[in-house]
Amino acid sequence: MNCWKTINVTRQVGINRIYLFSLIMLLLSFIFLYLPFSIIHQSHDIRDHGMFPLIIGLILLPLAHKLMHILPLLLVNRRIKFKCSMKNSFIPNISLLSRAKMSKNMVCFVLLAPTLFLTIPGLISSYLFADYYVYFLIFTSFNIGLSFTDFLYTKHLLEAPKKCIIENAGDGYDILVQ
């Protein structure tokens, strides 16, 4: 097996640009989602439970986002290396490494799992629960902002050859070909 390409988005783009584009994506997604949902739910009152539940939800959302990356690997019985640490904060930092080499489709599914399992249900909940649609839109937009790096990795992986194997290199992905 030869390494066709190594993908490390933080090294290629830069962490500051990633944070900036994630923030822009978060704000734009909230603006573009709030407008149609406010038109749909124009006569409903929004229930307010204060800032504390919103802040707790926003703190727990990155944890749920990481766990959604793990869920597809658990469903197909892949061995993963799971590491949790508490560096300089009270929020746990979770990192995962797949010990096995995976196909291109599987890695794309793992990268897009938070979008499928958190963003789409968030949009559906925003439509169904009219009293809390703003909260669901905030959480959905925050998840879209968190998914920015996942979208960058998926874009690079879609450019890879069809019959390739992806190996998690810890700080990025190695694309291996025959």
Which terms would index this structure?
elongated; two-stranded antiparallel ribbon; four-stranded antiparallel β-sheet; alpha+beta; 16% strand; 178 residues; 60% helix
Structure description:
The chain is of the alpha+beta class. It has one domain. 60% of the residues lie in helices and 16% in strands. It contains six helices and six strands. The strands form two sheets. Strands 1-6-5-4 form a four-stranded antiparallel beta sheet. A two-stranded antiparallel sheet has the order 2-3. Strand 2 (80-85) and strand 3 form a beta hairpin. Helix 2 runs antiparallel to helix 5 (133-146), helix 3 runs antiparallel to helix 4 (104-128) and helix 3 (51-75) packs across helix 5.
Give the gist of this structure.
It contains six helices and six strands. It is α+β, with helices and mostly antiparallel strands and 178 residues long. The protein has one domain (14-40, 50-151).
User: Helix/strand/pairing class, anyone?
Assistant: alpha+beta
Assembly of the depicted chains? single chain
Q: What is the H/E string?
A: EHHHEEEHHHEE
Radius of gyration: 18 Å
Enumerate the strands of the largest sheet in spatial order, edge to edge or round the barrel: 1-6-5-4
Secondary structure: number of strands? 6
The proportion of strand residues reads 15-25%
Q: Tell me, what's the shape?
A: elongated
The description of the largest β-sheet is:
4 strands, antiparallel
The average pLDDT is 87
Distance between the termini: 5 Å
Helix count?
Answer: 6
Stretches where pLDDT is under 50 for at least 5 consecutive residues are none
Question: Helix proportion of residues, in percent?
Answer: 55-70%
Give the total of domains. Answer: 1
